């Protein structure tokens, strides 16, 4: 890692040159927004780095919690404008609870100040490094669940987020990785795998979220499979405001609901 990148990293932290954006998570059966994932962006005038670069550098410098704390604080402050009765998904690195700088109760205080109840917050556990000890992962999930927060496992089916991680934990949400969603209407094996995850969620009571929906065909396929929720550019892009589902996606879901109602009657 070059020194100048570390310098840029520390300047971003010092200047707090990060702002949140929110991407809608849509109930595919009703067409309504059920939550928003809070994502972070950098003020591009201050650096050439991306947010992904920042987290890589933070891990190398042992400053993941410092960066995550800044991102979380910014998201919670902006959540004052969040619509009522929808969830706010906050990303959390699976290793931060072991960070010596980790502050317990930080989110409680910031959420209370923003007027966001714990029941509205979902901690989305991402793993930038593999956690092979599932007792640690369960400890992290228990830490947040005991405070009234819900838990989501991110990127299920990709990289470190294998099925062992799913069956050794009890999340409220599973987020199917974008690679399972990409062109799912063209590949029967992807449909089968998505259906298996859906069956698992239906039995365990978890909600399945399909990530990375980018086309009408993907949306229609996922809806026909009965997938609970969806997220992706076709449904709505990350924006600074809490936006609704896009018009084209809304029309597709409304048409499919109408057709289903007619067939039922």
Provide keyphrases for this structure.
265 residues; alpha/beta; 8 strands; 43% helix; globular; EAL domain-containing protein; Cyclic-di-GMP_PDE-like; EAL_dom; EAL_sf
Structural commentary:
The protein is α/β, with parallel strands linked by helices and 265 residues long. It is globular and about 60 Å long. The chain is 43% helix and 19% strand. The model has no long low-confidence stretch (mean pLDDT 88).
The radius of gyration computed from the alpha-carbon positions, rounded to a whole number of angstroms, is 19 Å
Mean pLDDT: 88
Tell me about the largest β-sheet: 8 strands, mixed, barrel
Approximately how much beta-strand content do the residues carry? Answer: 15-25%
Write the layout of secondary structure elements.
Elements: H1 3-15, E1 18-27, E2 33-42, H2 51-61, H3 64-78, E3 87-93, H4 106-114, E4 121-126, H5 134-145, E5 150-156, H6 163-167, E6 173-176, H7 178-181, H8 188-204, E7 207-210, H9 216-225, E8 229-231, H10 247-264
Parallel strand pairs: 2-3, 3-4, 4-5, 5-6, 6-7, 7-8
Antiparallel strand pairs: 1-2, 1-8
Protein name: EAL domain-containing protein
Organism: Blautia difficilis
Domain EAL: 2-252
């Amino acid at each position: 890692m070059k020194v100048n990148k570390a310098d840029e990293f520390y300047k971003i932290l010092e200047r707090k040159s990060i702002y949140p954006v929110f991407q809608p998570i849509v109930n595919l059966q009703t067409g309504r927004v059920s939550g928003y994932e809070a994502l972070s962006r950098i003020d591009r005038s201050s650096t050439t780095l991306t947010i992904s670069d920042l987290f890589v550098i933070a891990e190398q410098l042992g400053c993941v919690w410092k960066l995550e704390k800044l991102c979380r604080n910014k998201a919670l402050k902006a959540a004052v404008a969040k619509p009522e009765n929808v969830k706010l998904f906050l990303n959390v690195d699976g290793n931060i609870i072991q960070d010596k700088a980790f502050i317990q109760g930080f989110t409680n205080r910031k959420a209370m100040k923003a007027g966001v109840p714990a029941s509205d917050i979902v901690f989305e556990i991402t793993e930038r490094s593999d956690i092979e000890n599932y007792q640690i992962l369960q400890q992290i999930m228990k830490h947040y669940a005991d405070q009234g927060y819900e838990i989501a496992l991110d990127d299920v089916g990709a990289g470190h987020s294998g099925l062992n991680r799913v069956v050794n934990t009890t999340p409220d949400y599973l987020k199917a990785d974008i690679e399972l969603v990409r062109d799912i209407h063209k590949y029967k094996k992807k449909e089968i795998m998505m259906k298996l995850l859906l069956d698992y969620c239906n039995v365990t009571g978890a909600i399945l979220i399909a990530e990375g929906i980018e086309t009408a065909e993907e949306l229609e396929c996922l809806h026909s499979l009965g997938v609970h929720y969806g997220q992706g550019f076709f449904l709505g892009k990350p924006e600074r405001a809490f936006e609704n589902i896009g018009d084209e996606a809304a029309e597709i879901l409304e048409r499919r609901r109408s057709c289903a109602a007619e067939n039922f009657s």
